[in-house]
Design goal:
Order of helices and strands: HHEEHHEEH
CATH architecture: Roll
Radius of gyration: 18 Å
Helix content: 40-55%
Largest sheet: 2 strands, antiparallel
Distance between the termini: 23 Å
Number of domains: 1
Strand content: 15-25%
CATH topology: CBS-domain
């Protein structure tokens, strides 16, 4: 079963608010933002340019496990620079495949060079579940004869 919907549609329903940090911010400041917004990753922006992603995983592996101080370490020192991004026209299925293949949980969404949102694997799983529930409801209505054409 394929999941219908584009990332643009997901963002339309979810919202396009993107919180970001600068590369010069401390890791502590970035962690505070993640906690305040209840998110697992944040884009690292230099002006309007996306230069990397900072995630909880970056913190645990590159700061906590290495004995660094989150108040002394700058985000630029530990961010993930390998950028894997989506575009609004990509499908949910395409993005789930990319995220799974690359072992990532967050995908920045760019329209050209402009960042227009961010989706998590949780966002896409929720979209898939909702889509499947809607399909099942339509099938049940069709089978029961109450489907309005």
């Amino acid at each position: 079963m394929t999941t219908s919907g584009t990332i643009g549609t997901v963002l339309h329903h979810k919202g396009c608010t993107v919180w970001s940090v600068s590369p010069g911010a401390t890791v502590f400041e970035a962690i505070q933002l993640l906690a305040q917004k209840n998110i697992g990753a944040v884009p690292v922006m230099e002006g309007d340019n996306l230069i990397g992603i900072f995630s909880e995983r970056d913190y645990t592996r590159k700061v906590a496990l290495e004995g660094k101080s989150s108040k002394d370490t700058r985000v630029r020192e530990i961010i993930s620079l390998k950028l894997i991004v989506a575009a609004p026209q990509h499908t949910v299925d395409e993005c789930l495949r990319v995220m799974t293949a690359n072992h990532i949980r967050h995908l920045p969404v760019l329209d050209g060079q402009k960042m227009v949102g961010m989706v998590s694997i949780g966002d896409l799983v929720n979209w898939t579940i909702s889509s499947q529930e809607a399909t099942i409801a339509q099938m049940e209505q069709y089978i029961s004869g109450s489907y309005a054409e």
